[in-house]
What does this fold into?
Amino acid sequence: MKPPRFVYRRAHSKQDALDILADGDVGTRILAGGQSLIPMMNLRMARPTTLIDISPIEKLNSYHTTQSHLFLGAQVKHQFLVEASSALPLPILGMAAAHIGHRAIRNRGTVGGSLCNGDPRAELIAVARLLDADIMLESTKGLRSVAAREFFLGAYDVDLRPEEMLTWVRFPLRENVTYGFHEFARRPGDFAMAGAAVIATRNQCSKRLEVDAWIFGSTHSQRLLSAELEYHHLEDPAHVSQAFARNLGVDGDDLSIAAIRRAVECARVGSK
Amino acid sequence: MTYVGRSVIRKEDERFLRGEGRFVADATEEALHIAFVRSTHASAQLLDVDVSRARAAPGVVEVFDGATFSQLAGPLQPIYLANNAFVDASGFHTAALRVDALAIQEVRYVGEPVVAVVATNRYLAEDAAERVEVAYGERRAVLHPQDALKPGAPQVRPECIGNVAAGLVLKRGSVPSGPVEVTGTYRIGRHSGVPLECRGTLAEWSHDGIVHLTTSTQVPNHVRRALCHAAGWDDRQLRVIAPDVGGGFGPKANVYGEELVTAVLARHLRRNVCWVEDRTEHLIGTAHSRDRQHNNRLVVDRDGLILGYEDDFVVDIGAHNLWLAGVTANSAIHGLGPYRIPAFRMSGRAVVTNKTPTTQYRGAGRPEACFALERVLDKAAGILGISSEDIRRRNLLRREDMPYEVGVLYHDGRPIVYDGGDYSMLLETCLGELERQGEPPMLDERDLVGVGLAMFAEGTGLGPYEDASASLMSGGGFTVWTGAACSGMSHETTLAQIAADNLAAPIEVIHVGRSDTSHIPDGIGSYASRTAVNAGSAVLGATQELVDRAKGLVAARLDTSGDPATIRLDPSGFFIHEPSDAKMSWTDLAEVLGATIPGADSGRVLSAEYRFTPPTVTWTAGAHAATVSVDAESGLTRVTGYIAVDESGTLINPEVVRGQIEGGVAQAIGGTLMEEFVFDGNGQPLTATLADYLLPSASDVPRITSIHLLALSKGNPLGVRGVGESGTIPGYAAISSAVDNALGQGHVSSTPIHPESVRAQVRTGSEK
It folds into this structure.
């Protein structure tokens, strides 16, 4: 369990990293938290020829908000999302990040690393897609922004070009919404058997609730399910199940449906 | 002040807490590293093994395949054979397995070592290993015993005709047909001890012709015997040392081909050579365990009184099992529990398949036998409409039944005699504690909660013997050695407690040395809950002998006639000459002897050896209760509480005993709810990382209540009974019973209990 030979380079600034990436070598990979990449290298399943360590780039280990958006730097750690959950305008990020691995992993694992790794079971990918975030990709040629819903092409396959680095993720902030998250895992920190990230929007006119649920985990591949519910339906778990089960083409016993139901419940509590 | 019976702070704690433990991998800086090329097929012919490109790779010293290695050493053979009287009585036949360290002509499981690459470091060794080209002629793999036993099935190994590696029948009387007959099929899945430290071995060549092998083992003497036998070496050509070992649990009480390869290549190359196992190698290459199915039939009367019991089991041993005799016989012997069972027939077979080899693992055949009996008792109670405690109560052995002759032999050839106190008290104590603790906790208001109960009886302290040596050192301190290598069980403390009391010396001056065949040339090892019984009693004997010798020497100096009977060792640590009241301390004696014995061996000025040979095993028993909280929607099950009531002998160090019980329970929780080695239809392992093989973590293990009912053993001078496996054996049955109780329907008959099967059990019930 030792990696084959590779070149290690330390980038002291974003420009540094982009310069190294500029020759477009497909064997070059960014090293962020290394919580997935390094084990895969030790198993010799990932074989980068060059690693660019971006941990010195402090700027990317920060966030800022505008009127309409939250910008998360690629180097923000999962554990920060957990601890800053109530301070961030999107508490769902912390709810989701709490389920990533255990604390030692969350202390090093990063938002950018998780998104670029493209693991279809990853919590943050589900949340980025649910929230319709934009992924900011930079190269020496400039900035490219890709919608999260377009960025993920398949399992471990993302729309990232060899010369590009993920630098920021931009999350839209919305009003009159509440968020919910639930995950079933064999042990705390394991990949989900089934999970759901939920955003519920109150439609002030129709007095109905528009619920978007992004499911993930090993039960079903990631996808968006939507349903419109009357407020009083929220008191009835069976009704929530039916609405989404019909949508997914399964019965109400399905584990992903149970995850949605609990995430909706969590959103309902949050809305009170 | 006496030490035995007190929770003395562990002598090893400081070293480990400071990170100053020395494990095999800590001493490998100067050594060449081996990387093994392992089979990628479950069953194949080796058509061609081309190592030429690997040999030319940077840093490579030598490359061996099975053919070239077989010129240096022969195969490994079983470590343990049952006693002849037992063999005759049970018709026990075991295959004479011959296990090549590197595959020759064919491979039998994914992960089997095929080629050993020796290079200047592990990175280069792995690089070169990738350049070995193996041409496999793939064959149909045999992955399940039911397939292996079919006529015409491919033969996994020539020593096992019809793929049967062992078989036996133990019986007493004839099992009647009765008013109520309950049958069941019970299965415990394939899992094993997964220690924090994987295996590792370092062979140092010395110019006196001796190979010094430091290896992460529980059984240095077995390693030496097995390796010397395979390599055709004289015992003196190999010294085996067990350094700090980070967890053993049975898989490290085995002997492995990697150890043989490392030792033999060190001698061949006249260099220091090591191999440090990585986690994936461990999960596919270190021996697995369990993987058994029991088909049983319990005959009871309408009140639940047991009239007879039959249990027929099949052990899937994978490609081989060097502890075949022990783990197969254990299931037959331990299937009767702490009950009066007037007639029984226990039969079993071990079957070879194309999966990872197996060995003993904490419980070693007992948890499976316990699971089968305890589960079928619960089933019978359900059918009879009585409680699970009542059916046990009616059949438990009581004080007046002891000692209880079961009527068959243990595999050491001695009649099985339960030498316990009162097994019914275990149940009553456990029920009392359950009541005292009140309603089981509910983790979520949607959860279903349940309580389950299981009992067991276990022969502990397996012989044949253990050796100890005790020495007075030149500074007045003592060193004690035994053959029982420690892999985290606190021997440095507990054995020192025994020695300190006997020597009337403070525990601080007693050093328990690491197991080393140069100090204990003919020891046995640490497994089968045997160390306190065997090594502990041997330390008692050796220190007693040391005191006797010292008395003679003291008398020669203090008494005119030199009569040792005039000398007594006072609890204050002084030898006192009774007639004159003259005194001499151990330090004085060491000083005198140090001056009179020129060149005393490495500071030893006076030594004594002792071999303790137990009459047979001494029995422990217990009643355990688990509480669970089940999320019926997801099937996720958590153990929320656990009560272990065990019948125990002297507790040398109660805190250490608690650690043994708690660790044992944690492993039972793992085996019942999470841990399983899984293979696909082609025999490819699907659990090669710890992301796939699920171990319980701290949050999966509840607070455990451990209660001991004292019943001193008469089988050894310390009065101890083994505790190493007690936490594990009944856990599977207790937790499964609790799940049944929580769901209020269905019957768990197989572990690990997958969330999906809990969901199915819930759904089946709701459709009724």
About this structure: The CA atoms of residues 142 and 164 of chain A lie 9 Å apart. DSSP finds ten helices and 14 strands in chain A.
